Amino acid sequence: MGTPEFAVESLKLLLQNNYDIAAVITVPDKPAGRGQQMQQSAVKKYAQEMGLKILQPEKLKDENFLEQLNELKADLQIVVAFRMLPEVVWKMPRLGTINLHGSLLPQYRGAAPINWAIMNGEKETGVSTFFLQQEIDTGKIIFQEKTQITENETAGDIHDRLMQIGSLLVLKTVQAIEKDNYPQIDQSQLSTVNAHINSAPKIFKSDCRIDWSRTIDEIHNQIRGLSPYPSAFTDLVSPEGKIITVKVFRSRKENDIHHWPEGSVITDSKNYIKISAKEGYIYIEELQAAGKKKMAVCEFLRGFQLKNDWKVN
What we know:
Elements: H1 5-16, E1 24-25, E2 30-32, E3 37-39, H2 42-49, E4 54-55, H3 63-72, E5 77-80, H4 87-90, E6 97-101, H5 113-119, E7 124-131, E8 141-148, H6 155-178, H7 216-225, E9 232-237, E10 243-255, E11 265-267, E12 273-277, E13 280-289, E14 295-296, H8 297-302, E15 311-312
Parallel strand pairs: 1-4, 5-6
Antiparallel strand pairs: 2-3, 6-7, 7-8, 9-10, 9-15, 10-13, 11-12, 12-13, 13-14
Helix pairs in contact: 1-6, 5-7
């Protein structure tokens, strides 16, 4: 059960290791883009290529779907980036239902674990496999695998790495369940006493606007934690009040003592844009103006006359 590209790698690896996939469950096709053309999920596209049976229920409690699911007589259900399952679904297989989650549970339960780990400045993240139970992302842990987050890595960078690490962990988990030799660790055992448990809720537009009164670490982490999607954004404001909204995809930070007001634009109008903030500057390296393509800052400045009298908001 899965939807985006993140889930395809696990399905691919299971097939390569000769596991019999009874069926693939994914979201219904839906219109997307300006032309509102019907779009298939990444998982469906791959499943079609491999000639797999595909189910696309609108509702997971639909009687016809539940009947089809039961007829599969699946030993195990594997969930990777899908949606919350009702109990009648996750309890159906004789060996249960496992989930791959993009964090080191119990940290970052929720819809956007990779984004929030980076936005919160974590130096480490990972993936977890666990058995589903009633409360979301709370089931007993089977295996975990860690990876480091370096200073300038984006959510996209970590997503791609965890996709690979996660697929291997899914395979390891399935092999262990097949041999009936695997741990089941209660998540309470993985959190230290009085340790704060961070959550990873869905990201809204209000989470994406850059607040230039924050520290350069917080701003830099927000930019890379939201890159490439849904992306951090800010407004470039001219002295005359003209506003250009830009998405910011890559940045770097420079610690420095300065006397510029927060949110001042400093540029040579050719090669760099840096914005003043607490404790230093944020250099914008890759951005996208509304209606334009994503571009490096030097390319942006070739077609846009930005000067030091502009501000950000």
